[in-house]
Specification:
Elements: E1 7-13, H1 20-25, E2 35-40, H2 47-53, E3 57-60, H3 67-80, E4 85-88, H4 100-108, E5 114-118, H5 126-129, H6 133-150, E6 162-165, H7 166-171, H8 183-193, E7 198-202, H9 216-237
Parallel strand pairs: 1-2, 1-4, 2-3, 5-7
Antiparallel strand pairs: 4-6, 5-6
Length: 253
Amino acid sequence: MLNGNKIIVVMPAYNAEKTLEKTYEDLPKYGIIDDIILVDDFSSDKTVEIAKRLGLKVIVHDKNKGYGANQKTCYKEALKDGADIIVMLHPDYQYSPKLVTAMAAMIASGDYDIVLASRITGKSNALTAGMPLYKYISNRFLTYFENFVLNLKMSEYHSGYRAFSRELLLSVPFEKNSDDFIFDNQIIAQSHLNGFSIGEISCPTRYEADSSSIGFLRSVKYGLGVLNTASQYTLCKLNIYKCNYLSKKNKTD
C-alpha cells in the first residue's frame, strides 16, 4: 500500500525458472506491494512450481498465447483484484525489481498515469550493460522516430518494465492490442492519444544468458510493427483512419 493505493506487481512469465526467485527476493514486498500475480504462458520448465512455492498468485495459460496476450491476462487479473497501481516486471531479472517503489510512487503522486523504466538513461545504460549493438541502434532510431510522430521526448519506448494507474487500464482498450511484442508499443500510443501522462525513471539492466531476449527476425518484425503503430497513430489523430485499438474504451466494454 502506498498513499492508500493498492499495489499489485504482475509478472508475465515464460520459462523463468532460473531467475524468478532472484527477481522475487529483490522486490520491496513489505509495506509496499499488496500482491504479486504471475501469469505463466505455458512454460516447459519449473516456473509454475517455483512461483507456487514462493506464494505468488499463479495463473497458467493452457497454451502459449504470446507476450501481449500474457500482459492482457496480467492486467485483467490485477484490475479484478482491486489494484490501484499495477507494476509489470519481467521475472527474468533483467530489470531491477528494487525500483517498484519509486515507479509506483510516481503514479501514486498523481503526476503520471504510466511510468517506464528506461534502460537508456543513467550511468550504466543498455549498451554498456550488454544489449546487442543492432538492438541498441534500432532502439535509438525507433525512439527518435516515435518522439517525432507522437510529439514526446522519451528516452525509449521499448522497456518491458512499466507501471500503470488503474484509471488508465480501465480507459484504454488494451484487450484489442496485439498478442505479440508490439503490445508494448500500442499501449503507449493508446495512452498518449487519450491524454494520459507518461513518465520515465532510469533503470540499471543486465543482459546475460538467462535473461529473456527476442532474436533478430522477431526484432525486425517488432521494428516494423513500431513504424506501423506510429503511422496508425498519426492517421487516427487526423481522423483519416479508424483503428479499433486506438480509441477510448466504452464503459460497456
